[in-house]
Amino acid sequence: MPSNLVENCRIIREHEFNCARRLAKGVLQKPKISIWLILVPVLFIYYARRIKFYKADLQRVCDGVVHSKNFALDAAAAELQGEAVPDFRKQFLSKHPNPTRKVEEVFKLQAAEIELLMAHYRRLLAGAADDYAGLVRRAYKGKRSYREFLEARGRAEEQLGVAVLEAFQSGEEARAVHHRMVKLARELREEELSEVFS
């Protein structure tokens, strides 16, 4: 892999993980420290256990958020090098060998999200810059065109989130988490747009 392609992949992967981490931290509630921890030290064991679960949940959410992004980035890099693009359908079906209609809808929407991300990553990987903002400015040339991509990405993520809820998670808590994720993701996209084109 050419060195600038490796470096661009690293920059993009780092950016996507940091965004996922900010999203996860904004959605998951970190256990709060209480004065009772000082007054009744045995409660610290309970608090430490809750922190351990919180950290594991943070990692799970980050991994889930970046899964499609990492697949799309690896596929875009492979494509630019003339290598075989990994088969997303095969990977998906290995985890869901007998998909229901709702799971098929998740696949369809996730595949569309991956296609959108691959086009975006191809643009970023073709350039050279020291950071993510530089890659975006070289690839998109203007705030308007990058906003259009971010809006399309937001729609794809929201549609996929709804399909995942329908297929795998039907509880109120899952819907509340999804709603918070959608709201925070919109805010983070606006913040990113302002930072990149300030």
Describe this structure in words.
- The protein is mainly alpha-helical.
- It has one domain.
- The chain contains eight helices and no strands.
- The chain starts with a helix and ends with a helix.
- The model has no long low-confidence stretch (mean pLDDT 88).
Write the layout of secondary structure elements.
Elements: H1 3-27, H2 36-39, H3 43-80, H4 88-95, H5 101-125, H6 132-140, H7 143-168, H8 172-196
Helix pairs in contact: 1-3, 1-8, 3-5, 5-7, 7-8
Short key terms for the protein model shown above:
198 residues; mainly alpha; 8 helices; 81% helix; 0% strand
Q: Percent helix among the residues?
A: over 70%
Q: In percent, how much strand structure appears in the residues?
A: under 5%
- What radius of gyration results from the CA coordinates? 19 Å
Number of helices: 8
- Taking pLDDT < 50 over at least 5 consecutive residues as the criterion, the unreliable ranges are none
Mind describing the biggest β-sheet?
Answer: none
Give the tally of structural domains: 1
Q: Separation of termini?
A: 32 Å
Write down the overall mean pLDDT. 88
**Overall SS class:** mainly alpha
Order of helices and strands: HHHHHHHH
Shape: globular
Total strands:
0
Quick gist of this model?
With 198 residues, the protein is mainly alpha-helical. The chain is built from eight helices and no strands.
